[in-house]
């Protein structure tokens, strides 16, 4: 595995719990990946995790699914619409619209860390990584970038941006660990891993090398307890976590 001497500072990822898709209420009144959910996370002092997709006119927007049915109630591929068209769609039964990455940055203004997951579609997303990094270059707050997609991680790494770069992953089998190690060989800075697949030899080795590990997606205190036995911080939703830190629990 590569040395970590060039790794970027990821201490901000450990500082406070990370609200999954913002601090929503499981899509009752405050829906995921909306300005309302992001404002609520800011108000509670939580870091924000959210998903980025790429529009037909080359603009990163904050949205999880490829299809718009679950969140907007209409059939349609988000990637065939422009940012202007997407801004007309309400999320759920709320007044929130699909926000762009630029709108998110104008709201947050560095008040809490951002953990941005790029959700790619290989062959359709040329310029996605460049667009995200370009928009972020004038932003002064703490930001980390991550993806499940190894090809997107390669694109992001090639840009040599100032932002920590991480692998989003899961799995408990040796063949899965081998694929994860291929991604980490790019020189990544952190990992976001499914808490239910911890502990495992891959994550233990990465932590021994000094890499930050956060988990996804924690939905109760028992899962939070498990996270802090084996990782540095959690990405959570559906409850208000009690304050804690790595080392609170003993295995």
UniProtKB/TrEMBL annotation:
GP-PDE domain mapped to chain residues: 15-251
Signal sequence region: none
CDD domains, alphabetized: GDPD_like_3
A biological process term (GO) from this entry: lipid metabolic process
GO molecular function, one term: phosphoric diester hydrolase activity
InterPro entries: GP_PDE_dom, PLC-like_Pdiesterase_TIM-brl
Identification of the protein by name: Glycerophosphodiester phosphodiesterase
Organism field: Ferranicluibacter rubi
Taxonomic placement: Bacteria, Pseudomonadati, Pseudomonadota, Alphaproteobacteria, Hyphomicrobiales
């Amino acid at each position: 595995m590569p040395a970590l001497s060039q790794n970027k500072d990821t201490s901000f990822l450990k500082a406070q719990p990370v609200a999954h898709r913002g601090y929503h209420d499981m899509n009752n009144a405050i829906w995921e990946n909306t300005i309302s959910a992001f404002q609520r996370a800011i108000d509670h002092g939580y870091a924000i995790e959210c998903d980025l997709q790429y529009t037909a006119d080359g603009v990163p927007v904050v949205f999880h699914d490829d299809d718009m049915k679950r969140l907007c109630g209409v059939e349609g591929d988000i990637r065939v619409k422009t940012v202007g068209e997407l801004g007309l769609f309400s999320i759920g039964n709320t007044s929130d619209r699909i926000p762009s990455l630029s709108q998110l940055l104008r709201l947050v203004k560095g008040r809490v860390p951002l953990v941005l997951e790029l959700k790619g579609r290989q062959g359709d997303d040329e310029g996605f990584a460049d667009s995200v990094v370009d928009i972020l270059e004038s932003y002064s707050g703490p930001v980390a970038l991550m993806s499940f997609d190894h090809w997107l991680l390669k694109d992001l790494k090639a840009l040599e941006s100032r932002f920590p770069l991480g692998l989003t992953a899961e799995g408990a089998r040796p063949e899965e660990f081998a694929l994860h190690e291929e991604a980490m060989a790019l020189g990544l800075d952190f990992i976001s891993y499914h808490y239910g697949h911890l502990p495992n030899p891959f994550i233990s080795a990465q932590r021994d090398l000094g890499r930050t590990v956060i988990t996804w997606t924690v939905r109760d205190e028992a899962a939070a307890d498990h996270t802090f036995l084996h990782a540095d911080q959690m990405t959570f939703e559906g409850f208000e976590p009690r304050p804690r830190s790595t080392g609170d629990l003993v295995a």
